[in-house]
Structures are given as C-alpha cells and as structure tokens.
Amino acid sequence: MADTDWSEQGLCRTADPDELFVEGAAQNRAKSLCSGCIVRTECLAYALDERIEFGIWGGMTERERRALLRRRPTVASWRRLLTTARAAHQRVSGAA
Fold it and tell me: Which residue ranges make up each domain of the chain?
C-alpha cells in the first residue's frame, strides 16, 4: 500500500466525502476543489498507482484516469512520473 501522509494536507480533507464521489455536472464542482491543492500530484499518483476506480482524485474523474491508464499502460510508478514532471515544470517555469 502506498504512503498517504500527503492526504492530511489536501484541500478535500474537510469536504464531505460524498461530494467527491459524484456523477455528471457535479464532477466539475468536485474537480474545482483540486485546482489549488498543494498535494494534487500526490493524490492523482496514488489513484493511478492503486487503480482506484471511483471518485475525483487529483482533479481527474474515474473516466479520465481510465483513459490515461489505457494510453500509458507501461508506466510502473505514476508517483515517480508525475513527481519528476512536476519538478521539471517548476524548474522551467521558475516556480518554487
């Protein structure tokens, strides 16, 4: 099982869990909660690595995650891939 210490820092930690496991237009409201979250990358990586099928995780719906997993079936560690990509983006953009 993956390390989930990051989850205590998530913006959703105080949200009603039912708000993150919704369908249709309500998914956009749930995804908006993720947009400014500092652990969005960790959350998404966890959902992808653990193949979590339901809910909004890291700003993506289950359908979006399934599509990503189908497009990149050889990724062994989404956590490593996303963390590396985030670090590269921060270096290029000069972000902290």
Answer: 16-93
